[in-house]
Amino acid sequence: MNVTSLTLKNAEIEKLKLFISNEGLKETKPTNKYEMLRVKDGKISIVLYSSGKLVHNGSDESKKVVDAVLEREELYDYILGSDETGKGEWYGPLVVVATALSPEDILNLRKLGVADSKTIKKSRLMDMAGKLRKMNFEHQTVVLLPETYNDLYSQFQRENKNLNDMMAWAHSAAIQKLLKKIQFKRAKVVIDKFDLEKTEKRLSKLDRTNLEIIQKSGAESEIAVAAASIIAKYIFEKEVDNLNMKYCVDLRSSKLQDIKQDLLPEVAKIHFKNVAKYL
Question: Domains of the chain, with CATH numbers?
Answer without folding.
Answer: 4-69 (3.30.310.10), 78-241 (3.30.420.10)
